[in-house]
């Protein structure tokens, strides 16, 4: 049995620039702190991990949970405002919905989302491009702060959902932090897009079959 773990931003949804724009604005709105949106400089490249590091660096003593809720709520407002003003700007990575549908039809494969975004924002972005998550194992930055924790928890939940033991765990992602986390966990990695170089790489999901042979799937 195969477990396919999927990131969202830049992997299933072409939302990296929108995500960066809205999160930096939300942080400034709530905390009055300007960030450049270069998430690669953070140790934990997840919504919750980024906020934790900003709080630590700026010696902010207000309740962590309260600040997280405030930033998340403002972030959602910013995304909704952006989508209302730019309804055609957010779209799926080519072939993503069809790929998910086809994988869900396979008896030897289970699909899970493992995203560094907060669950509320992640589901809003997926909904915006028409991807249904109701029957998909889902783990996010609302559950854990690090990519490895999120991926490991997704695999655990997938086992609970299916009762299956997975022979292969394959993560599809677009960032260097995704690649590093899969190496730490011993999962296979498929790079989506051009953001990170890897020996198994696809420009989008219309080409997924090209890596299946390389991974012996």
Automatic annotation (TrEMBL):
Official protein name in the record: Haloacid dehalogenase-like hydrolase
Top-level taxonomy: Bacteria, Pseudomonadati, Pseudomonadota, Gammaproteobacteria, Vibrionales
Domain of life assignment: Bacteria
InterPro entries listed in its UniProt record: HAD-like_sf (IPR036412), HAD_sf (IPR023214), PGP-like_dom2 (IPR023198)
Organism expressing this protein natively: Photobacterium profundum (strain SS9)
